[in-house]
Amino acid sequence: MTHVRTRPRRLSLAEVRALIGEPEPMLENKKIDHIDRFARMFIAHAPFLSLATADAAGRADCSPRGDYPGFVKVLDENLLAIPDRPGNRIADSLRNIVENPEVGLLFLVPGMRETLRVNGRAYPTDEPDVLVRMRTEAKAPALAIVVEVTEAYFHCGRALLRSRMWDPASQALADELPTAGEIAAAQFGGDIAPEQFEAVLEASYRKLF
């Protein structure tokens, strides 16, 4: 008997709204078009964000970005700058931004249940006056991503509460996973042992800053 693969039923927006209802007007009104003093404080304490981009065809990507708290600089109430630190040089986010400037950011502060969402239009820059503000250990990034903010708002903490993200006990979940070296060895194949991949990763991590 041949098994025919079927996909779950697709819902229209009207069907979605029939199931979840409409948002309270107050929640819609919380969205602002700039970085106010509360968002500025949050960004100044955030060591991590997720950067969502899409290419010209709409193919989406989401990239983690992290550094010292406040590594994202608020240039003014409508402009942010994100340092582009050394990485794998694939540059998916930069390529997408050049093709399609629309981006979404999600800022996290350890221990804080609420998150900050920022949407806008982005472009890469090598402006020295911007890069020098991102210097760490006497090193400035070669590039930065400038975001022209169109929307900013705080998101409630339900997701982080459900996930128990900041519960120390949750860190035990990592012990149940294979190491990065084991994953790389299985995916890339060949005769390279997991320990060799681990050594390469550790060497790259020591060059972070």
Describe this structure in words.
Helix 7 packs across helix 8 (194-205). 18% of the residues are buried. This protein has 209 residues and is of the alpha+beta class. The model has no long low-confidence stretch (mean pLDDT 89). The protein is built from eight helices and seven strands, in the order αααββββαββαβααα.
Could you outline the blueprint of secondary structure elements for this entry?
Elements lengths: L12 H8 L4 H5 L7 H9 L2 E7 L5 E7 L6 E4 L2 E6 L7 H8 L2 E7 L6 E11 L2 H4 L11 E13 L2 H6 L16 H9 L5 H12 L4
Antiparallel strand pairs: 1-2, 1-5, 3-4, 4-7, 5-6, 6-7
Helix pairs in contact: 7-8
Question: What is the gist of this entry?
Answer:
The protein has 209 residues and is α+β, with helices and mostly antiparallel strands.
The class by helix and strand makeup works out as alpha+beta
- Strand-residue fraction? 25-35%
Mean pLDDT: 89
The outline comes out as globular
Q: Secondary-structure element sequence?
A: HHHEEEEHEEHEHHH
Radius of gyration: 20 Å
Major sheet size, sense and barrel closure: 7 strands, antiparallel
Strand order, sheet with most strands:
2-1-5-6-7-4-3
The total beta strand count reads 7
**Which runs of at least 5 residues are low in confidence (pLDDT < 50)?**
none
InterPro entries: Pyridox_Oxase_FMN-dep (IPR024029), Pyridox_Oxase_N (IPR011576), Split_barrel_FMN-bd (IPR012349)
Pfam families: PNPOx_N (PF01243)
Protein name: Pyridoxamine 5'-phosphate oxidase family protein
Organism: Streptomyces chrestomyceticus
